[in-house]
Every structure is written in structure tokens, then in C-alpha cells.
Amino acid sequence: MTTQKNINELIDDLRQKGVQIVEFLYDDYTGLTRGKTMVIDDLAAHITSGMGITKAMFASTARDGIVEVADMTAVGELRLVPDLDSLQILPYAPQVATMMCDHYNTDGTRASADPRNTLQTIIAKLKELGLTAKMTYEHEFMLFSGTGADKKPVNPQVCFSTDAMDFAYTFLPEMLNQLRAVGITPVEYYPEAGSGQHELPVAPAEALLAADNEIRFKRIIKHVALEHDMSATFAPKPLLNTEGSGAHVHFSLWQDDGSNAFYDAHDDLQLSQTGYYFIGGMLKHIQALTALTCATVNSYQRLQPGAWSSAFATFGQDNREAAIRVPSTFWGEEGKTMNIELKASDATANPYMALTGILAAGLDGIQHKIKPNLPVDVDPASLTDNQRTELGVQRLPASLEEALTALGQDDFYKEIFSSRTIEAYIKVKQADVTYFAGQTPDQIAQTHRDLY
Q1: What's residue 156's pLDDT?
Q2: Which domain holds residue 35?
Q3: Is 372 helix (H, G, I), strand (E, B) or coil?
Q4: What distance in Å separates the CA atoms of residue 8 and residue 219, rounded to the nearest whole number?
Q5: Are 345 and 199 members of one domain?
Q6: CA-to-CA distance for 126 and 360, rounded, in angstroms?
Q7: Burial profile 177-198: b = 16 or more Cβ within 10 angstroms, e = fewer
Q8: 81 and 212 both lie in a single domain
Q9: Which of 297, 342, 366, 405 could form a cystine bridge with 249, CB 3.0-4.6 A?
């Protein structure tokens, strides 16, 4: 329980550490992080009462246009209330502390438009079943030099190249140190197949922290790149002539006794019945889910058959052309390492919406015992249309507009997020569809490369 004594002690501690400014942050429907800052002298009065923010911000596009949604207008206000458990000091700006916020209505109730609130609701539902979700993003990003249309990939090399590794060692230690400073645990690093592309997986965390970490991770990578005269982009397809960048989500469910609810030593895939049901729920809703996890026009420039990005709604063990992959476990740590991976995911998503969408669909599968189709162990693109139909394999949406249509038709997510939230989200994204309709594929890629 937060008391005035706790608040005073917190502020005294921040002062002693040299903090002068505190950020109140959130992620909007465009997948961009926004917020306000508070000078520490005035912080005490706002830790519990929050900072005021217009309701219209959830109807904001990436170009700061406001789409028309009832109750998301210039009239009315919400409160950004910080989650004190999320407090971190920026490693590259130690005079700044940063906190993720939940949106509240002025009457003290949680705002349904806020996906961070919705994620916490789903986490609570899992807790009622004795389950805890652990999740992480597996990020690819590209490094560029130059500006605008003149941006070029830095040190393009072949996949897993030691030349690329040697280049990365000039900035990678700094990235690792700054990530650890905000509680993120890097576990691996390797140069990837795209021009100037790198991958830096991090350890899983409980779902809310995993979403918060997604925001911190991208911010730190971008900042360190700038310090080394480069720009980092997490755009799904920043260049059309090379591989795209995913932000695959790995996740598992853990029971109160500490066992992995997805693991079954006797199954051919070592996947439990709970795991199969979870996949069944995801596949039931995956057409709509894709609108949440692949959230921009540029996402669908990446999400193509044969691109190792997954373009088909199916699953398989170590099948990197399936939307859902069941990774093989590690020897001697089978129970600890069993997890499920969603490959149809990138870094343009709002992480709270994306992780909520995954967990809610999986929970629907568990509660209703939804069985998935049989696992597919070939590239679905190599099958005929009839073969895919027999196996129950569908094409994922081929455009953001198709994904938004699927989201609008899936009443399940309207119950999870609220009808108004889904309406606003679709309208914000539809504004992007309209904006990019007259642009060339290269222009679309460049705009997203600069924005994300």
C-alpha cells in the first residue's frame, strides 16, 4: 500500500541519486511511446493523483491527427498514474527517472481505453486459474548511417558473420550494460541475415514487465546507436531488398507449483494438452490477432510467403514459416525451456495490446478446449491450395486493411478490450492505410524506417 511516508522516502531516495525529472510514460495505439515529465519538486502530489491528459490522445495517429471517436475528443480528461514498480533511472541520463503509467478516469476508475489496464485484467484471470505467463520479445533491428532517403545499412554482412560480430563489439557492451541497468537480462547476440541487421534476445519476464521491457529495450538500443553515429530501426521492412525485422513473442505458462504448464515429456512435441489448447485459441483468433501484433502497413511488406516471417495460420515444431512455432527444447532443461513462439509479430505493435491479444486468445482456447489443426512440418507455401484446405491452413492477412477487417469482425476482442477501444484502434490504423495508399512501396518502407 502506498502511503505518504512511502512517497516521501521514494522522493528522498531519488533526490539522493541526483534525479531531477520524472517521466510519466504510456504507449499509444500507434505503438509509439508518449508521456509527460514532472519536476521532482512537484512529484509528491502527482504520484497517486497522476498527471492530466486529454482523452483524445488515444485517438491520435502517428502524425498527431485525431480520428473521430466518441468520448475521445477535446472534451474530458484522463489521469496518467505511475506504476511505482516500473520505476527505473535512465542509464544514459541519470538525472531522469522513468515510470510506466496506467490511465484512470477522473472518478478514480481504470480507463478501459488503456491496454496496459486490459493486460493486467488478463493476468488476473490467469492467476485465478493458478497460471502465470512469462513472455519476452525476440528482437531484430537494423543499423543505418545517413538521413532520409540517403540512409544506408551500416556494415552489411552475411548472417552470423564474425566480421559483423567484431563490428558490433564496438557498441554491444554498452547496450548490454544499459539494458541490465534497467532490469533487462540479455541472453544472446548474433548478426542476422538482413543488411546491417542484429538480433539481441532477452530473458522472459512476467507479462506486464515483459511489455514494459519492450519499451525500455527499443529506447536503449536507439540511444546507444545514436551515440555511435548510427540510427537503429525496428521497422518490420525498412529495406525492400533484404530480410525484414521481426519481434517474435516467446511465452509460456507456469503453474503455482513452479512447473511449466506447456510441457509434457510424453508428447511427440513435448507440448502439453494445455499448450495445444492455447495454440488452438490463438489460431481461432489469429486473423484478428495479427492486426494487434503486425500493426502497420509496413508489417505486411514483411509478412510474405517464403520470407521466414510466417505468412500462414498454422503451427509446427521449429517451422519458421508457420505463424506459431513450437521450439524444440534444450537437452537437460526440457521442462524449463518449453515455450511457444508467435512469429507473426513485429515491433510496431503496442506491446500491451499484443500481449493481451495473445494471452486472451490462448486463455479462450484453454477454457473452451479448442484443438488446433495438426502440426505442419513443411513450408505451407509449398503446399497446394487443396492441401492447405485439408490441413486447415489459412493465409494470414496480406495487408493491414485485411487484418483490421478481421479484427472488426471478431467480437471476442471487443469483449476483451471494449467495443470503443477496438473502434478507436481500427480508425487510427485505417488512417494509416489511407495515408500510405498513394505512396510507393519504397516510400512506405522509408517512412516506417524513420518512425520505428
Answers
A1: 85
A2: 4-110
A3: coil
A4: 29
A5: yes
A6: 9
A7: ebbebbebebeeeebbbbbbbb
A8: no
A9: 342
Q: Is residue 115 part of a domain?
A: no
C-alpha cell at 413: 476482442
C-alpha grid cell, residue 71: 468520448
Residue pLDDT, tens place only, 327-383? 999 999 999 999 999 999 999 999 999 999 999 999 999 999 999 999 999 999 999
Q: Within a domain: residue 116?
A: no
The residue from 73, 88, 110 where one domain ends is 110
Backbone angles phi, psi at 411, to 5 degrees: -65, -20
Same domain, 296 and 399: yes
Return d(Cα 22, Cα 343) in angstroms, integer.
Answer: 35
CATH of the domain at 166: 3.30.590.10
pLDDT tens readout for residues 18-32: 999 999 999 999 999
The string of DSSP codes covering 18-80 is T--EEEEEEE-TTS-EEEEEEEGGG-GGGTTT-EEEEGGGGGB-TTS-B---TT-SSS-EEEE
Element of type H or E holding 215: helix 207-227
**Is 117 among the domain residues?**
no
- Name the amino acid, one letter, at 266: H
DSSP 150: G
Terminal CA-CA length for the chain: 37
Say if residues 77 and 52 touch (Cβ distance below 8 Å). Answer: yes
Q: Are residues 16 and 92 in the same domain?
A: yes
Clarify whether residues 70 and 150 are in a common domain. no
**CATH code for the domain in which residue 12 is found:** 3.10.20.70
130 with 103, same domain: the answer is no
Q: Is 138:201 a contact under the CB 8 Å cutoff?
A: yes
* Residues sharing a CB contact under 8 Å with residue 39, sequence separation 6 or more, in sequence order: 20, 21, 22
Max Cα-Cα span within the chain: 68
Residue where a domain terminates, one of 69, 89, 110: 110
